[in-house]
Specification:
6 helices; binds ligand LOHRUJSQ; 31% strand; globular; alpha+beta; eleven-stranded antiparallel β-sheet
Length: 308
């Protein structure tokens, strides 16, 4: 148990206001992110992926992958601190990510993030903490996207003061649910190998958690070597869905939900299976070398090309 009963104070915790953060990005950040999630990693002239890392003079702007939105949360997620609730940050794992895109992401922008606590559950052996980030364009004040980041805090559960485990959630119960994988054959499957240096490249987008780069830190956290960022795995999976289901159009993606089921090591091969249910793509991603399902979730899309 990471907190003694006297340390957990739900009134203090729920009254706590998280500070606003800012995030400014440009085309260079967009391209570095796309390389970090494997764009053009196997073929430098891949016509489906080149547009995410390069645009010729005279062409329209570089295109932005919808999972780039997950980076907007970095400012608040790297400094998590709550009065009335303590945990060991070295035991934190990314559990789930939910992203709602209100309109396609511009290739450069300055954003204001409004951050709030969206949930906290006592699961006994762990605590589940959820942080919501709403990103508004500076100037217009228009809402661009919402992220909900769920972190799984190993060893931080068992803090409830009553016999009923503490549970707080302030968002609709149908959002970001664990998915049921269909029993039928998938509509389509995409296989892509991550590079042994994938996490070292991905971290340059701003997630410098040593869990993904430092062998000693990874061992202290309970892993034999550094593991891949969950959001990097999610980026690979959603890029595969855009390629295989959305005909390469990143603007087709409306909502993304993913649950990280087990760890991925950089260098492993990701196989993403996809099923279509109306305008929802259900997906699961497996690591080929260990035959383990590492991620599952859904993507809601805005429409479908008739050729599918
Ligand atoms: C830009 C900011 C990013 C913020 C994150 C910063 C740090 C980033 C770190 C990473 O990227 S870590 C790498 C990515 N994440 C992972 O690799 C985690 C992979 N998943 C696991 O290893 C396991 O699933 C787990 C999280 C350790 C949980 O497994 P465990 O066997 O311990 O749990 P269960 O007994 O099955 O379930 C207990 C309880 O918790 C609920 N639950 C389980 N898994 C998750 C999950 N991934 N997300 C949310 N909730 C989860 C589960 O439903 C059970 O609840 P009840 O059903 O009992 O109510």
């Amino acid at each position: 148990m990471a907190t003694s009963e006297s340390e957990f104070n739900p009134d203090l915790l729920l009254a706590h206001k998280l500070p606003e953060t800012q995030y400014t990005y440009n085309e260079r950040d967009v391209a570095i992110y796309a390389l970090g999630i494997g764009a053009c990693g196997e073929d430098a002239v891949d016509s489906d992926e080149l547009k995410f890392v390069y645009h010729r003079d005279g062409q329209d702007y570089i295109q932005v992958l919808p999972t780039f939105a997950s980076l907007f949360t970095l400012g608040s997620m790297t400094r998590l601190n709550f009065p009335g609730f303590k945990f060991d940050p070295s035991l934190l794992l990314h559990g789930q990510q939910y992203i709602e895109i209100c309109r396609p992401l511009p290739s450069k922008a300055s954003l204001i993030n409004k951050v709030s606590l969206a949930g906290l559950q006592d699961k006994g052996k762990a605590a589940i903490l959820e942080i919501e980030t709403k990103s508004y364009e500076q100037g217009s004040g228009e809402l661009l996207c919402t992220n909900r980041t769920t972190v799984f805090l190993r060893g931080a559960g068992g803090f409830s003061n009553s016999s009923q485990p503490f549970s707080y959630k302030n968002y609709p119960s149908n959002q970001g649910l664990a998915v049921k994988i269909p029993q039928r054959q998938p509509l389509t499957v995409c296989e892509e190998r991550t590079q042994p240096s994938q996490a070292l490249l991905y971290r340059l987008s701003g997630d410098y958690n040593p869990l993904h780069s430092d062998p000693e830190f990874a061992k202290l956290a309970g892993f034999p070597r550094p593991i891949l960022h969950g959001l990097c795995t999610l980026g690979f999976a959603i890029k595969a869905i855009i390629k295989c289901v959305c005909k390469g159009d990143p603007a087709a993606v409306k909502t993304i939900s993913g649950r990280f089921l087990t760890i991925v090591f950089p260098g492993e091969t990701l196989i993403t299976e996809m099923w279509l249910e109306d305008l929802r793509v259900i997906y699961q991603t497996k690591v080929k070398e260990r035959n383990k399902t590492v991620l599952s979730g859904y993507v809601d899309i805005r429409g479908l090309s008739s050729s599918l």
